[in-house]
Amino acid sequence: MKYSYYPGCTLKTKAKDLDTYARISAKALGFELEEIEEWQCCGGVYPLGTDEIASKLSSVRALNDAKEKEQDLVTLCSACHHVIKRVNDDMKNVGDIRTRANNYMQLEEPYAGETTVLHFLEILRDRIGFDVLKKKVVNPLKGRAIGAYYGCLLLRPSEVLAFDNPENPTIIEDFIRAIGGTPVIYPYRNECCGGYISLKEPQAAQNMTDRIMDSAASFGADSLITACPLCLYNLNMSKSGSKLPVQYFTELLAEALGLIDKNEEVQAS
Amino acid sequence: MQRIGVFVCHCGSNISATVDVEKVAQMSLLEPGVVHAEDYQYMCSEAGQARITEAVKEKKLTGIVVCSCSPRMHETTFRNAAERAGINPYMVEIANIREHCSWIHKNIEEGTEKAIILARAAIAKVTLNAPLKPGESRVTKRALVIGGGIAGIQTALDIAEAGYEVDIVEKTPSIGGRMSQLDKTFPTLDCSACILTPKMVEASAHDKINIYTYSEVDQVSGFVGDFTVDIRKKARSINMDKCTGCGVCSEKCPSKKISSEFNRGLGKRSAVYTPFAQAIPNVPVIDRENCIKFKTGKCGICEKVCQAGAVDYTQEDEIITEKYGAIVVATGFDTIKLDDFDEYAYNQSKDVITSLELERVMNAAGPTKGHLERLSDGKAPKNMVFIQCVGSRDVTCRGKVYCSKICCMYTAKHAMLIRDKYPDVNVTVFYIDVRTPGKNFDEFYRRAVEEYGVNYVKGQVGKVAPQANGQLLVQAVDLLDNKQILMEADMVVLATAIEPEAGVRKIATMLTASIDTNNFLTEAHPKLRPVESPTAGVFLSGVCQGPKDIPETVAQAGSAAVKAIGLLAKEKLMTNPCTAKSDELLCNGCSTCANVCPYGAITYEDREVNDHGIREVRRIAVVNNALCQGCGACTVTCPSGAMDLQGFSNRQIIAEVDAICR
Description:
The complex is a heterodimer. Chain A is α/β, with parallel strands linked by helices. Chain A has helices spanning 16-29, 57-68, 78-93, 95-105, 120-128, 130-136, 158-161, 171-178, 197-200, 202-218, 229-236, 249-256, 260-268, and strands at 2-6, 32-35, 73-75, 117-119, 145-148, 182-184, 223-226, 246-248.
């Protein structure tokens, strides 16, 4: 099975781990991530202005590229996923945005939201199946108490993202179980990490990440996993006394599938 | 040729602001048959009606068109006026130029043009009207009340006191309803059971009241004054005549771990049970889904211990068919499910409960024997947080858009009772608005704040986070202080929105009673006929019609009873003469009409007909005028055009359409 893959800027720079481990895990699980050619930055933030069209176009290009290849479009970074999924929803359901974006795009056939956008986790859950994943695990993460950190971008607005219950999500916990770890459920797993406010008001963001860290640690987590580079950055800035290590979920996936050593060779070569 | 008079109403400025009423009258005069046209400020007033009767006499009118509000509002008024003037009331047609025209148009030219067209259509129709005479139908002097809560009990008592027989059908094993689950009632803080149970006893002891508990309405047919209802008496597995209510069966029942509905899942009950000690009737029910005897065939302990020999495992559902003149719906409410509100951690923490659950916790007969304690560890709480509008006034599609109306008052009650009994417990209430209209209601809320020191904070709660140490962290905002709040609480109580009882839509469908998108039954008129359903003979009592508290429910219950009594007191009812009629020369006996008739009003007869000199016996559709409600389904389905609706004949409808399209 081949999917169109939109990595996004951060996965080429600061968040290489998120990307690399996803690619080798995908191969081991029997699907291929085919990177879209000449993809452009998603913008990082979904533009809420209804007359803001230009900054949505990079998403539309990626979506249309996948459409032309008749493939589903896969993302990894929470921010990219959020932007592309919402732009896709606009192209499907908001006539004005669709018309104006297509006026810019000058495509042979106008794009109208035909592509299915999937997060890598959704492939694991809905296409591979966590039960199948569990059988492919060679190195179960026994004894690891792992807290899922969702952040907000994957979950909200829930009617568009349609990812999981925004107040009580379970997909990452189910993933942790599938790779042999023990999920730690703590109430702050779906609270905002502060996002970009960490640049302007670092203290405000730090208060938020401290609360997340303290909550996860108090429920017995020994590490956190996330799908979002910005969340990972902010969580790492926490000065909480109970600071936990934070990893991308794909790294744990690769570890459970027994690919970590091979990966180092891949990176070396 | 008919002599038609047209009367155009201004309805104050309701119509005249967007319709040139004088022009409508002038233009009507140009229509064939119209010999009189005038406009007047309030046609429905006494003076307006007098103008109609005078014109009938002076101009010798044979047909009347009133251009006014919806016929649902004043058709009867103008028909009566016509009758007083000496012409058949069915020679009146209403052109609805208010709801269908002036209220929905802003431009006076457009509005006037449309009003003229609507008047023209009504004139075309009345030209073809023929006098009709209503028939008569009997009234069965017996009422059915669906639901045995305080609304149903009060309605039944009031009807019975007027001397009519009443049956109450209650789906649970006992009457009493939600009120029986409450601890205290606002604004007087008297004990709910103390004021309810005497009424329950009165109802059960009343010789005119017959109570079917553990029963449901299965089927309804007929019409106002003459309903036929099938009541399903579910198999109780206990012989009600033999049972003494000693309770030994429940005590000895080995299957004891079943979640108690009466205690909102906070306590346990056995498989053979009465929901609560003061239940009426005091006869248990065997819950067959959880009974070991019914599941495995073994056990039978209750039968062995029953001294009265009342246990009967072979009992089956029984259908009772009864006739009624009036039906009162009093099906009540439940709290909404909170599965979509996980930010309040209701499903995650035992210490987050609904207000109705708190009623059980605070009740001496409840799961904690009335002690205020955390359900997770039984510890006494020090800090309690109440969250109002959980699912009420909610525009996110998770809850209800309406205000549940009772929550502000019961939350003030809970807060006050807790501060009174446990003065060392801090109580904080988060609210959007505090709404306490009602006699002695605002005074009550102010007592909570001023005398009992309840801390009211304006602001919504964003999250209730269960902590590892068992505490709940409440994250909120104080809108008046513009501050974020983080507050530790031992218990959180959610003022959960209420919604109509789940089965009400099914009942409304059986009764052909209208129901809104929130499953509240619709009134015949929101202001002037608030306890009547638009379906004749069906009345509304209690929360099934809209959120209301106990005093309001009791008032409405009495009002519904009065309406039912007014109906039952009549010897005969006039039937609607606008019924279907089959033309025996055109009918080919195909049965299509009988298949679509929702009232079972069409039967077939073999009848001798004379078709252009050919005499033969044919199978012909015959309409029972007493059963026909004039819905017109048969007339549109009849392939040979034999069915016609009197007063709304195919010719009349086509004439209207032609007039509109002219």
